[in-house]
Every structure is written in C-alpha cells, then in structure tokens.
Amino acid sequence: MKFFINDAQDVVNEGIDGLLTDPNLTRLDNFPEVKVVLQKELDKNKVAVISGGGSGHEPAHAGFVGKGMLTAAVCGDIFASPSVDAVLSAIIATAGEKGCLLIIKNYTGDRLNFGLAAEQARELGYKVETVIVGDDIALGQEVEQRGLAGTLFVHKVAGHLAEKGKSLDEIAKTAQKVANNIFSIGLSLEEGKKFQNPESSRLSSSEAELGLGIHGEPGVKTIDMEKADDLMSKAVEKLKEYLPKKNNEKFVLLMNNLGRVTPIEMNILLNSFQKLEIARQVEYIIGPSQLMTSLNMSGFSISLLKLNEGLRDSLTSEVEPVSWFIRKFGGNSSIESPDLPDTMPFKPSENMQFKNAIKAVAEELISLENDLNAIDEKVGDGDAGSTFATAGKKLLEVADKLPYANTAELLITIGRILAREIGGSSGVLLSIMFTGAGNSYKEESNIGKALMSGLQKMKDYGGAKEGDRTMIDALQPAFSALENGKKIDVVAKKARQGADSTKEISSTKFGRSSYLSEESLKGIPDPGAEAVAIVFEKLASL
C-alpha cells in the first residue's frame, strides 16, 4: 500500500508534531522518548484527566486533549501501550492537589503500564484513581471486554466534571458508571494495514467480520459481504443482546469510522441505522466521523451509552478538541419544494416531419450509447454516450406531448427537457443552445440563424470556441451551412468534417480532454462532436 509518510520509524513522532501546530497543545520536553501531549495552559487546581494507549487510533487519544476533555494523552508506538515512565511523567506533569484520573482501555498492556504508573504515583504522594473501560460486547460479557470507541464517552464526562471543579472521587465514580453503561461493536471489511510489514487480509472480497478489534484482532465471526442495510442490521442485532430491555430507555450514539470508510459511506450506514427500531431510542449522536480509528481499517463501530439527565450536560457542554462534536439525532425531514417553471409549458401540436425526425434522432442516440462511451473512455470520463442516450430516452418518452407545429416552442421545450433531465455540462450547454435558438426564432423564422444564435449563447457561457475540440467543432460548420440555405446532406457533410477535425486537435483548454497528453488524444474524435455528426447524418438519410 502507499502512505503519506517519510520514514515508517518516524510516523508517530511526526504525527504528534503535526498535531502540535494547535496552539492549545504542547508536549513534555523529553519527547520523543516520552510521548505526552498535554494542554498548554494547565490548571492544577482541577483534577487532571489522563488517557492514552497505542498510536494508530487517531484522533484518539491526543486529538481529544483540551479543555472539557483530556488534560493529557500518553502515546505509545503503533498499537503498543506507552511505557510506565511515560504514564508517570504525564501524572507528575499535570496532577495537583486534587489528583488525577486515569482512563484505561481494557487491554493487558494498558492495564499493566497505566496501573503500575498509578501505584508509583501514589507512592510519591499523588492522588490517583483509575477507570477501566471495556465496552466491546462482540465476544460476550463473560470474557475480558476490550475497550473501543465508547471510551470517548468517559473522556467527555470526566473532562466536563473536572472542568467544573468536581472532586476526584466524584469524577471517578461517575466515570465508572458511564463505562459500565456503554455498549460497542465493530464491523469491518478489511483490517488496517501497518506502515511496516503490512499483513495480507484474512478476509476475502466476499467476507466481512463482525466484532473485529481495533488492533485487527479477530471478531466474533466472519459473515457474508452484504448491502449496508444488512450489515448494519447484523451489528445492531448483536448489540441488542446486551442492551437494557426497556423500550423507553434513551441512548447516545457514537458512530465511528475505523479509518478509510468514505464520508458518503458513513452517511449511508447512518441511514441504515436510522431505519432500525433502536434508532427511535437515540437522542444524541457523535459522528459519523473518525473518532477512534485502526489505521486505515475499512470498517465502522457503533457505541450506545444509556442516557440520563445527569449525563446530558456533561456530554453536550462545549470543549476545545475539534474532534468531538455532538448533535441531536432525528429522522429525515423535508419542506415543501418551490414550484419551478413547467418543463413543457406549451400545448402539443402536430408536424409529422419534425416528429419523425426527433423520433429517429432519439433512437439513434440510444443506439450510440456504448460506442460513444467507448470513445469517451479514451479522452474523457466514459459517460458521453450514456448522457446522449438519456436525452434520447426522454425525448421518446414525451414524443406525443411536444409542440411540433411551432418551431420556437419546440426548440425552447427541448432546451427545458435537456436542462431538467440530462446530467453533466453537455446537457446544460445544449439546453442553453436550444433555448437561445427558440427565443431567436421568435424574432426571425430562420432555423439556421436561430441555431447559430443559440450556439453563440453556448459559446458565451461555456467559453469554448471552434477548434477547441468540443461539439462546437461539428455544430458551427453545420449551423453555418443551414444559415446559408444549404441542403441537409451538405449540412451533414460539414458536421462530419468538423467532427473528424477533432482527431487532429491535441491541445485544448476545455473539457476532460484538457487533462490528457497530446499523444493520447491523436486520432480520437471528440465524442460530443461525433454524436453531432451522426445525428446530422441520420437526418440526411430520412
């Protein structure tokens, strides 16, 4: 895999250096031997709240250092617990007379190193309490439950109470109650890949894993790869085995991106969640976003916290860390859409010559879809044929509703259809052209002049001109011939000559072709110009 790194050995240190561009954060000066990120402006009259663990879970843990959350975060190497000395350094650097709370995810290394540091700090006279978070229900409650993204709930509540000046005892007891009422589960399509010696995935392209740990540890079972709705449903069904059974229980949802799931996929997963019955019991949501990741794992986790009135203020109060944001959770809603001008405002009328011509052109555009897409694959984004085919299908759909007897109305209506129904810039540009032509035809009943006038509007808005390797290279010579009274066979030849000329145009500032090298364009026509030429050739054959 490719990574934006300098040296795999320096990833953690340089990542922390990047984070420390935040003026509210600083580090201990024995960095990088000891990797402790802490608030720059410490208030030792308040309880210090400290957490941490292995790196690779960013923004956790250092990304949640700031007023209202963590006082300090102790960072280990990738997926490795920080040393006892690092944790002890954080305690001594931040704890005042009120003491400090250590929030520990339930992993052996973290429990041992944070626990021993706490004992050593107590020997030195510091007040230290610990809260161990094991929110992962994947493997059941009979085993040691791992600490997942639900730990962030504890960070937020403890940080809020510390900011309010509460005692260490009160903060520790409340934090433990919160930890006891968090339920989390993850689901992944592929494990995160380490910067050094990345292992191959144990999952095939047709598999997903329910309950995968944040260090890539196996989950409860491998399941079939399915649609987002089905995967979310399976995750929630497993979670519900351990949730309180009261229907009136309220929850806060934390929707966590485990690394490389795209934002749009996370929103799809959230939509899948809100379709489920449990969503009616959710009052607030954190995310969906990267909160506690597993490097670039392709997966998500969901955490639910039982909500009571005492927690509401603790969870919703403002904090410095930008990685934390919470909002109300609600279902989809909509407001009335404004009325837009009618796509076809004119009464249908008959002109069989025009009707047959439009029908033939529409069918031709549909038949050209694959051929034009193949051309566009070489010089564009591969969808030109689909765009023109969509136009053809829509024209056939409304064929009996068009005002064929009034040329101006017909041109304007085609323009509106293209604007509303056809995607991409070509649909908009052709809409501008046909609309302009229709308005021009009202003033002078010359189809060639009207189309040239519409083409000028297209050029004014689009910026391209003849010779820029666009559909204009076929449209302009064809319309010019029409304007000069030439017959349709001559017009078609002019369009064909224009389209063929684009094969030799290898330097352009417009369209997708402008991103390609001159060599890759030679010998290949512009797909839009090719479509125009074929349309005129079809008209000439009628």
TrEMBL record:
GO terms for biological process: glycerol catabolic process. It comes from the Bacteria. Residues 352-541 form the DhaL domain. InterPro entries: DhaK_dom, DhaL_dom, DhaL_dom_sf, Dihydroxyacetone_Kinase. Keywords: ATP-binding, Coiled coil, Kinase, Nucleotide-binding, Transferase. SUPFAM superfamilies: DAK1/DegV-like (SSF82549), DhaL-like (SSF101473). Residues 7-324 form the DhaK domain. The keyword Cell membrane does not apply. One of its GO terms (cellular component) is cytosol. Residues 351-378 form a coiled coil. One of its GO terms (molecular function) is glycerone kinase activity. This is Dihydroxyacetone kinase. The lineage of its organism: Bacteria, Pseudomonadati, Bacteroidota, Flavobacteriia, Flavobacteriales.
